[in-house]
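Usage example:
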Amino acid sequence: MMKNHNDCRDGCFGYPMTRRNFPGRALAGAAGLWLADSLAIRSWAATPAAKTTGQAKSVIQIWMWGGPAHLDTFDPKPEAGNDYCGPYKKPIETNVKGIRICEQLPELAKQADKCAIIRSMTHGSNAHEIATYMVQSGRPAGERLVYPCVGAVVSFFKGYQAGYRGQLPPYVVLTEPQGRASEGGFLGARYKPFATGGDPAKTPFEVEGIVAPGITDAQQRQRREWLDQLNTLRRAAADTPAMQALARSEDEAYDMILGGGAKMFDLSTEKDELRERYGKNTFGQSCLVARRLVEQGVPYITINYPGWDTHKNHFQTMRTKLPELDKGMATLLQDLADRGLLESTVVWWSGEFGRTPKIQWEAPYNGGRGHWGNAFSALLAGGGFKGGRVVGSSDARGETVKERPTSPSDLIASIYNRLGIDSDARLPQPDGTTVPIMTATTTGGLLKEIL
Amino acid sequence: MKRAIPALLLLGLSTAAPSVENNPAVHATGSIDSLVRASCRAAGIQPAGPCPDEVFIRRVHLDAIGTLPEAEEAQAFLEDKNPEKRSLLVDRLLERKEFADYWALKWCDLLRVKSEFPINLWPNAVQTYHRWVRDSLAENKPYDRFVREILTASGSNFRAPPVNFFRAVRDREPATIAQAVALTFMGARTERWSPERLAGMAAFFQDIKYKKSNEWKEEIVYVDLLGGTARDAVLPDGTRVALKPGTDARTVFADWLTRPDNPWLAGNIVNRIWYWLVGVGIVQEADDFRPDNPPANPELLALLERELITHRYDLKHMYRLILNSATYQRSAIPTTERPEAERYFAHYPLRRLDAEVLIDAINQITGTTESYVSLIPEPWTYIPKETRSIELADASITSSFLELFGRPARDSGLESERNNSPNAAQRLHLLNSSHIQRKLADSDKLRALARSQNPVDELYLTILSRYPTDEERNIVSGHKPGNRSLTAELAWALINTAEFQYRH
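Running the assembly step on the lines above writes:
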């Protein structure tokens, strides 16, 4: 029974130990495993390749987690009266004649020529999870399949399979993942985003797993050797598929730790003046990191920006949040434009819904706004979208869509269009069949106005 | 160095592992092993030898109760001279509280227990349903009764927990419910059925109705006996049944499914348990029974079915049988490079720990806890920090660690939704994240071990459930950790070994 009985010269708690080399790591760089993955996917029958003729290469998604008030951002209604607009009665003119936005967004007002504001978003759901799923995936809720969200789809079509060779994963979230809403859906775990953790407003930005404070590169290398020496089972079972997969993932991880990964997140090389302009807070510095990742060719970056679910004391919160949003996002747009990156980068601003136009003045809300999925706003800039435009409109109180209803699916299809992902492209399911990435909508369709 | 274990002595230990194969007292277990050996022989595959005690104590803890053995438990087991100590350990583990906790976690994966989208059970229903599942497992409720209680449940989602089965589906169409019943209790995927066959089964679930009460998120699931119409339903075996108005058609279906000669119920559950413990199903995937996916060893499947039925659907009996078998207790090191050896159960397959088990093990080693929060309001779910991850009821509890390590979303009820394959982000997290570094650095438990008489032995026992080998002792004593503490560096290395992260 005990085959290889006498091979265990080295002592390995009963396991026969073969004297093999440690799994080769010279060839298996970060791209190695991902390539292997994409080959596996290609073999899933009949996944038609998406056309990649669009000019946009990357997307920065500013996810307004919780649902921002459309009336207090890009769809002001000063004529609706105090019960609707509260303290924000004087929207400001932007650098595009006729477009007015909330008075708390003066820097973004100077960037309006780069932006398309969609004031007629609608899906009708007031539940966070369902609305998030619909806005992030473009699919109706309640289907049998759980679809991947836009970031996963983009990393499927623009990631390693499409020739991306970056050291960082093709889908990065700053900084915290959102659970379900940033999932790969039926595409599976490998299309989930890499969440950085940490805080880019702190020095150093401790990108979870890549940047470990107090451990030098030399120490990292020593630690790795030390681990290899003690990795008895991995050596004993080196030829098994399980241990080979583990070795590959470890090679990839160390490529990120010891390769350039850490430098890409190192903001100390940026001018302090620019860092100030972005705003020295988590959101502002996340915008700066996002720009750096775009420079590295990362196809999809989500900035998860929490704090917009303002049921209570809404306006107190807006007084601090809106200036933060204003600085960070406006500087991002200007910085991308200055570097010639805006033409190839879509910036998408949206939450899962808007907020109730009518203010709840009574306790316990004390001036709060609830969830509102009937009508809300989104913003698109760069990547070939026409700026200085407003698409659609809501009624006088911002309660319903007046012109050109736009579903999340319409907006997402438009982003795919800019990226050159064909609307009839298909996604593989685990059972080998494929499904179309988009379905037809009954709303206004593709945003032809700004394409 | 009294505890220093030279390699050859270890080997001696492992060859002296109790041979259950020759023990007539465990006849059925012996039959399992004969059937597996015969099929290996026919395929020309040499099965791996028995695993040593050091491996067994760790493996059986992780497999049976999803929990790492404590250092003292490992030590006591290794020093125990009783030749029956493995089967005695199995008996003890099956009575542990963690047995019910861990298997409730598995069952809640299959039953899609989560508060939010796309299942939307909502927190208080999740808690009551989870508790019912856990209590059913703790009392070892006969499996046929467990299934019948679910299939025939009526009442409030808060007060009659198993009614939540009929709510834990994406929509409440009879065909969707039939699909969930077929997948969960028959291991059958109705996507492969003809539409008529599915419609025939759906007719048994056509009278289920739902109504709200005045209590927030309460829902009553009931069968509309008066509204039901006379109609034909067709059992999955093709038998046509005339349903009369006034009968709960679900009981007709449950009667059929739980009949001892039903080909699906027993086969599916024994195959699942085999898959859960042995790592590869006799029918693989474990929830994909169909004529063109035959069992790797039909006699073995038939034997296990017979055992379940003659023992009145006693699930713990099945766990005991399998865990005591020589097949389960084989080494994880293959004797052959032929990949099909796993399908012959010729060795124990290496599998990464489940996400929840992994973080619980790290917490146990370091004496730290996780803090879980639920973003789902009304009622806010308060989760005490002592709660272990295998005890979590709700898949909607936010946790980036559990997400990263492949916790299933509980959307589909498929076994394959749990993803235990490794990736770079997981390795980054264990090697280098502040989450894990902090646990190691802040651990009073590790600091106490560092001050003990034999810190290296203590660390090996705590983390890998064994003593170090001579070679490992040499490596450790020759290591220069620089400005870092040797024990902290050793703890870091050991939790990053394959031996820690994998069931082996």
